């Protein structure tokens, strides 16, 4: 079992989300540009009910790898929805409709309790109020011998990296400058934390960099 951050889009200047995130701009203003490598892939098209063809090059191969052997996900509150603070009600069930793309248990980090949400396709959202260590322990129990994928957002990934809980991170580096937003590297010294670059592949719209924690 490994803990992984996969297909994590990032701009050349280190941003993985744009500024002013809200319901209309879940990735922040300009944020979708970071994921423009992913949208044309066959993986994305099939996942979201678009064309069944899609592109099948390096970008798609790397996206396919990111869904292999995943037994559980961990998500930050912002990845689940734009609502802040106490849940006003339980009508919000995520960005993705009745069948989310996870198909395994997903553990959502939040400060506000909420009952487990059962969705179509085998996705159960469990809301974890006692931090990343608890979320990871629950995800490990659910995943068995399969891997755990940290799905973001940026702050969640930073917390797991700072605690050296991530074994591998796959960055999809887009050739663009965001200038502002949420910077993945803010407050992190990856070399001091014991991470090193293990693999680099050039895709059609992104450069894919695999970073692994040293033993």
UniProtKB/TrEMBL annotation:
Gene Ontology molecular function terms on file: 5-amino-6-(5-phosphoribosylamino)uracil reductase activity
Top-level division of the source organism's lineage: Bacteria
GO biological process, one term: riboflavin biosynthetic process
SUPFAM superfamilies, alphabetized: Dihydrofolate reductase-like
InterPro entries: DHFR-like_dom_sf, RibDG_C, Riboflavin_Biosynth_HTPR
Residues in coiled coil: none
Domain Bacterial bifunctional deaminase-reductase C-terminal residue range list: 8-205
Stated name of the protein: RibD C-terminal domain
Gene source species: Comamonas testosteroni (Pseudomonas testosteroni)
């Amino acid at each position: 079992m490994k803990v992984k951050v996969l297909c994590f889009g990032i701009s050349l200047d280190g941003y993985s989300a744009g500024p002013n995130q809200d319901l209309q701009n879940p990735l922040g203003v300009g944020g979708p540009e970071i994921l423009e490598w992913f949208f044309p892939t066959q993986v994305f098209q099939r996942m979201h009910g678009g064309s069944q063809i899609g592109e099948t090059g390096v970008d798609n191969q790397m996206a396919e790898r990111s869904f292999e052997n995943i037994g559980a996900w961990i998500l930050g509150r912002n990845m689940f929805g734009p609502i802040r603070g106490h849940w006003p009600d339980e009508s919000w069930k995520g960005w993705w409709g009745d069948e989310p793309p996870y198909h395994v248990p997903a553990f959502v980090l939040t400060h506000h309790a909420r009952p487990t949400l059962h969705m179509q396709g085998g996705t159960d959202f469990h809301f974890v109020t006692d931090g990343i260590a608890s979320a990871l322990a629950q995800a490990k129990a659910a995943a068995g011998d399969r891997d755990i994928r940290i799905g973001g957002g940026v702050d969640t990934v930073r917390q797991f990296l700072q605690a050296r809980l991530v074994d591998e991170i796959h960055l999809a580096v887009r050739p663009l400058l965001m200038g502002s937003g949420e910077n993945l590297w803010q407050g992190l010294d990856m070399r001091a934390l014991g991470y090193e670059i293990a693999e680099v592949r050039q895709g059609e719209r992104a450069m894919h960099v695999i970073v692994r924690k040293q033993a």
